[in-house]
Design the sequence.
């Protein structure tokens, strides 16, 4: 399964290191491929530098050392969302044919998009556990 990560997932996992980080750890141990687009990578770096400048380089280096699939961003607009800043994230997920867009952004979660599937980290974990995904 190919999963695109949104910026807010990266911030939750690497800045706050709570439940979302544990979910990413589980996903890294699974057969899932975790994708980060060029757009999300740049946005993540920008937010780290702006809001957590003291630890930004340390956090960014730790994140870049992990086994993410870093993919290019497309200039094509392949979907519509209320927040125009989210359109490149959706477009990249569609462009690369990814299965899931993992996000905590309500604009995504409430958009009614069918492909890729838009899910929150807690919904994804619940679904995988219910299906025995991690125990097979």
Sequence:
């Amino acid at each position: 399964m190919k999963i695109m990560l949104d910026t807010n997932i990266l911030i939750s996992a690497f800045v706050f290191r709570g439940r979302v980080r544990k979910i990413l750890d589980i996903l890294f141990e699974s057969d899932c491929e975790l994708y980060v687009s060029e757009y999300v990578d740049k946005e993540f770096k920008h937010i780290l530098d702006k809001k957590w400048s003291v630890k930004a380089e340390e956090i960014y280096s730790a994140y870049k050392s992990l086994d993410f699939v870093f993919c290019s961003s497309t200039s094509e607009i392949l979907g519509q969302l209320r927040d125009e800043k989210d359109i490149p994230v959706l477009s990249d997920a569609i462009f690369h044919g990814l299965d899931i867009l993992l996000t905590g952004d309500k604009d995504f979660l409430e958009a009614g998009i069918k492909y890729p599937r838009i899910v929150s980290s807690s919904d994804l974990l619940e679904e995988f556990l219910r299906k025995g995904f991690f125990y097979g």
